[in-house]
Model the fold of this input.
Amino acid sequence: MQHAFAVQNTFDADQELARAADSVEGLAWRDMIAGAPSWLMHASGAAAEVIEDAVVMSAPGVDHLLFNRAVGLGLHDAVFESSIVRILKRYKTRGIARYWIHANPYARPTHLSRMLMKRGLQPYHRSWVKMMRPAGAIGAPVEGLNVRRADATDAHIVSSIVGPAFDLPQLGAEFFAVTVSRPRWHVMIAELDDQPIAAGGLFVDGQFGYFAFAATRPEFRAHGAQRALMHTRAELAVSLGCDWLVTETGFPLTADEASSSYHNMLWAGFRAVAVRDNFGLPGTAWSTEGV
Done:
């Protein structure tokens, strides 16, 4: 299988991979939001707009950073002060105070972080790490678990698993239910004794298979569900002609921090291609409890 990007441990190659990873992430979220039914769009006020080359997501009715963040700033062109001002104005106009602007290491100029801080933004204590690997087999089927493709009747199951895992309000969880019926999305459900315990989404864009989300019910963690979902989604991505697998997660704060998501990705053969900092207004936290 030929890859459009050479796998090299060089800074320039990783920057190109990171650009591709951010591009497919932004595209997946735009697709998710575009596919929402009218009642959900009205209740959430969700939008995914392209400002300069960033996908700027905003949802006044969903007070959560997943739905209020800018992905891909500086993806293609140099970032100017005017670009940042436009994004900040958009959030202010929509009455949103809790948002993130991802500061990408490939962005030009290299002092983007200082530009954001000049505008009163501060980095959150945890960065996100973009992970990639060439498409191919991941592990083997996990004994005792059945992984199957979700259909429209499973939409409520997907939202009930993913929503609590990400501390989402119900309106936010409903967007993940939308992906079950979208053409470029492939949502898998892991079952234990015929009971749905985990779900994971794959978004396909040409040569890229994006592991967009995955979650397990808390009481069923440590049963291998996430590795089973990775195995199945990787097989599907290969069958659909993908050359690369893409995902992201929170970057561990210390070398010995317990991070099942990050360690599962390493187990699956993903490697870090970029670490991006998350900038928001002072006091911006992942949850409304301030964490």
Observations:
- The chain has eight helices and twelve strands.
- The two ends are 43 Å apart (CA to CA).
- The longest strand covers residues 195-205.
